[in-house]
Design brief:
Distance between the termini: 37 Å
Structural class: alpha+beta
CATH architecture of the largest domain: Alpha-Beta Complex
Low-confidence stretches: none
Helix content: 40-55%
Mean pLDDT: 88
CATH topology of the largest domain: Lambda Exonuclease, Chain A
Number of strands: 9
CATH class of the largest domain: Alpha Beta
């Protein structure tokens, strides 16, 4: 498989978005944040280009302004007329960055550098591709710098385990095989804060990263066979261009459309009644069951996993219930003296006991494991506006 870091990151955050983007090849609208980040990155690349002199601050700002004004027409939905908040913020970021990072003070050996690294999995070879914002050469070795325009700055511990920077480390070691792992410094530069978080990887970390990549690729290939790519709601949904088609959000847009179907209106009443019964702690189990049947039926028909009402929304989730064939488990545990630890054979007690067993015994017991999925509704009273 050939895959990029950004695709791996997309899959990690939401498998369904990965499917829309990488498998179905559905183009999503360009967000203001995405266009803004691209324009800033382009301007900083221009800043470090020597042709034959480095550009002045005014030239870098003019370059950014031209990029932004050209690309902002692609933003959907379009920005309000006269809205210069992104332009002004970009100019401020560039001024602050230029003040503390005059280009002639750095030995930049690569900008927007493409890379491809091969990772073997038995006989199979996978290719990880991407681009590195900037590579500097210094007395200690090399420094990889990745610009971030996001407002959130993570903790140092997150930076030390950042998957993207670990992949960049692998890319440099592949590009220059004589490099030692400790000769590569990895830095995340948060432009809005003017702060840089740096870290160095260990051989053990890079080994774990390769295993993580291979596990993700195996998951993706397995999901492709079943076409099961679940949506994973998070704060990132607010910036996702696929929100209107996502089964976690589509009902919100359908029910707010002017041409709302009768069954959409009926579903809103059902959701309202469902919340009323829950809030009043009524013991009307029968009616709740009927409502669940109606909700699950609607979800199945409309191919959505979440429905919205005035009081909040309901999300369908699959729960795995694991059980074991305890009679056969006893045949394994009794001869090795562990059966008495489960005074009354119990799946929960067995799960707690498993980590204490030898790998061979664990393997035999896990082969007796069976999994049953049940569907449930998770309630959220958070009111969402489109």
């Amino acid at each position: 498989m050939r895959i990029s870091y950004s695709s791996l990151d997309t899959y990690k955050n939401c498998p369904l978005k990965y499917k829309y983007q990488e498998i179905d090849k559905i183009k999503s609208p360009k967000s203001a944040e995405g266009i803004f980040g691209g324009a800033v990155h382009s301007a900083l690349k221009f800043m470090f280009e020597r042709k034959p002199l480095y550009p002045t601050l005014d030239q870098v700002i003019d370059f950014f302004r031209e990029k932004w004004n050209t690309k902002k027409a692609l933003i959907s939905p379009p920005l309000d007329d006269g809205q210069d908040i992104f332009l002004n913020e970009g100019i401020m970021l560039i001024k602050n960055f230029y003040k503390h990072n005059q280009p002639w003070n750095f030995n930049v050996v690569g900008m927007e550098s493409p890379f491809e690294i091969k990772i073997k999995d038995g006989e199979e070879v996978h290719t990880i591709a991407g681009r590195i914002d900037r590579i500097d050469k210094n007395e200690e070795g090399y420094e990889v710098i990745d610009y971030k325009t996001s407002r959130r700055m993570p903790a140092q511990k997150e930076a030390e385990n950042d998957l993207q920077m670990s992949i960049y480390n692998l890319a440099l070691l592949d590009k220059w095989p004589d490099l030692k792992i400790g000769d590569v410094k990895l830095s995340l530069y948060f432009l809005k804060h003017g702060e840089k978080l740096s870290s160095v990887r260990t051989p053990e970390q890079l080994k774990e990263v390769k295993e993580l990549i291979l596990n993700s690729i195996k998951e993706i290939e397995s999901r492709q066979k079943t076409n099961e790519f679940p949506a994973t709601p998070s704060g990132l949904c607010d910036y996702c261009g696929y929100k209107k088609m996502c089964p976690m959000w589509r009902h919100l847009y359908d029910k707010n459309s002017q041409q709302s179907a009768p069954d959409q209106q009926q579903m809103e009443e059902i959701v309202r009644e469902y919340f009323d019964l829950k809030n009043k702690n009524q013991q009307n189990t029968k009616r709740l069951t009927e409502l669940k049947i109606s909700i699950f039926g609607f979800m199945e028909e409309q191919k959505v996993d979440r429905v919205f009402g005035e009081d909040g929304y309901l999300t369908k989730s699959l729960l795995d219930r694991i059980s074991y064939d305890l009679d056969k488990v006893r045949e394994i545990l009794e001869p090795i003296g562990w059966w008495q630890n489960i005074l009354e054979p119990d799946d929960k007690k067995l799960a707690e006991l498993l980590p204490q067993l030898s790998q061979e015994a664990q393997k035999k017991i896990l082969e007796l494991q069976s999994k049953k999925q049940t569907i449930s509704l998770k309630i959220s009273k958070k009111k969402i506006k489109k």
